Amino acid sequence: MAIKSLLLASAAGLVAATSARAADAIVIPEPEPVEYVRVCDAYGAGYFYIPGTETCLKISGYVWYQIGAESYDGGDSPDFLTYGGYPDDEGWIKSTRARVEFDARSDTEWGTLRAFIRLQATWGEPSDGSVVADQAFIQLGGLRMGYTESVWNDSIGAGVASYGSHSWGSMSYGDQQRHQISYSFGSDQGFAATLSLEDDALDGDGYMPDVVGAASYNQSWGAVWAKAGFDEDRSAVDDLGDSGFGVTAGVQFNIPGFEGSSVRVIGYYSDSDNAYSVISPVSVVGGFGASEFSVIASYYHQFTDTFGASVGYQYFSDYYLPLTEIKSGVEGHAAEVAFVWTPIENFEVRSEIYYDNVGELSSLGIPYDPDGTVSGFLRFTRFF
Length: 384
What we know:
transmembrane beta strand; mainly beta; single chain
């Protein structure tokens, strides 16, 4: 019994001593948990949550290296590749471009809040490597504000109802970027429409903006679309105060049984040489390079999962004299062929060849008929 009492007393002493030491122990706090980057799948592949926020961010872009050549010698029709910028140059025309895009999105009670920034630098052009902010805009639901593609080119929900032919160059379709406020509704799975107020000068002169409207209907078989643009002062450079307008309509049919293959036809009309026209870079007349009528027809065929090719043709009915409603009587023709090979994911090899021919210029008092020109490039692009 005495031994049992002694053991119990010893155990009690040990417990008391242990409790005393525990009370005096230094507790080291655990480190704060690290918030790792989380994938955001609400807006498609490539987005992740910015740590500590509910904003999703996607960083993407590309780097390309391009080798080009053209036959323009100063007396021919300007070529599509350089717009006749390299007369008598028989060497290779090289270009390298780096582009990075930041796309931030988050859900709000007013719709998706978005900010988009595009930075790029191109070597082989006048910028020669200087980084520029090529585009930047804010978007809330269908409301977009900033500097980006004109709605004459592209708009929210337009789907395939954008740009010109199937090639990267897309032929002459009025390519331009604008300072704008636009509102869109609908989607690229059905009907969509956009109204845009656009500024062509960015210098604050005048209070009346240009106005552009677009409507499109996309389905599994293809799409149809129509656009109209009002240029409130087509001759702002010369301060003549004349307005002008242009309209365009197009259709694309996807070829049954050949996934990825399609044919598209687009028609253009402008009442004068104004910003809402084809803006042909191969016009020898000058100004915006507008023609009264123009038609683009192109076909793209996806031969395999990694190789596709397209052909295109464009007719220009009658170029206007610069910044006027006066027709020059000069017409033009253009043709192209493009090849695209993607041997591995995110790596593209592309080649495009253009032929351009402006008609006889005797009606302008120029005593010669320019020869046609050929231009083209081979490009290697790594996307990310």
